[in-house]
Every structure is written in C-alpha cells, then in structure tokens.
C-alpha cells in the first residue's frame, strides 16, 4: 500500500470512528454528514467520495461495528478459562456495550437495508460462534445434552434482549450482573434438586 492509499484508509477509518461515536450517542437520524465530517476533521465531500451517501456510510459503520464485536466475542470464546467465566465475560461485554449506545441508535437499526445486513451477519457469523459456545458448554458439562441447541440459543437471546435495554441494566451493580450469570446457568433453584 502506497502513501496515498494509507492516507485514504486513515481518513476512512477516522470517518467511521467519528460516525459510530456520534451514532452511538445521538442515533443515526439525528447526525448529519456535516457533523461527522467536523468530528473526523475531513470535508463532507470526502465522506461522499469514500462512501457515496449517509446510508452507505451507516452500513459500513454498522458492518465494522459488528465485526469488531465479533472479534471481542471470539477472543472470549477461545480463552482458556472455565465456561461459566466465558459466559460471565460475554454478559459483562454486552452490558458495557449497551451502556455506551443510545436507545436512538438501537431504534435506528430498523432500516430494512440495515436489518438485512444484521440478518446476514447473524446467519454467517454470530450463529456459528454461538454454536461453538454451546458445544464448549456441552463438552464441559454446563449445558445438558438433552436440551436442543435451538432452546439454548433462545435462552441466550432472552438474556441478550434483556441486557440490550439500557434502562434495565444501567444502574445495576457488578454483583447483580454476576448474579445474573449464576441465574443464567443454574436458574432460581441454584442447581437441580436431588430426588
């Protein structure tokens, strides 16, 4: 890569970083190309030249955002730590992510083009990673082989949905999140009752 290409990539990176920061704070609809350009220290024309329009920039930003989140998830997934610690780390990661994103940003992800991107990303990347997590849980004895993968994924989704609502977890203590992890694994009973 020559100097011009490096500078171009650096500008694109700066634009995407500014966009995700502004989108996360204010939501996609409330942020203008001019505001992104100002934050990225580039001209609005540069944004149009590199991304075409705001929708394409938004798609690029969300795609990069999801890929970054997947890298974090995979890093945890392949750590040499006990399975419950992995799930705890994943829950903490989701909680921290939720705290850093405005509800306007989450609501803005209803655009059909963005929804299609999310569906493709979920099918191609997130589901295989979840299946790997489930398999690790089964191999380590934390997920019962009698429970279907579909049910486990639904269970994960229920927890994920809950922690994606900032108003539910914003003021929760670290201990509450640890307790949530315990509930995640053992339910209200703590562990199966001996008959």
Automatic annotation (TrEMBL):
Occurrences of domain HTH tetR-type (ranges): 9-69
Pfam families from the UniProt entry: TetR_N (PF00440)
Annotated GO MF terms: DNA binding
DNA-binding region as annotated in the record: 32-51
Superkingdom to which the source organism belongs: Bacteria
InterPro entries the record matches: Homeodomain-like_sf, HTH-type_Tx_Regulator, HTH_TetR
Keywords: DNA-binding, Repressor
Protein name as it appears in the record: TetR family transcriptional regulator
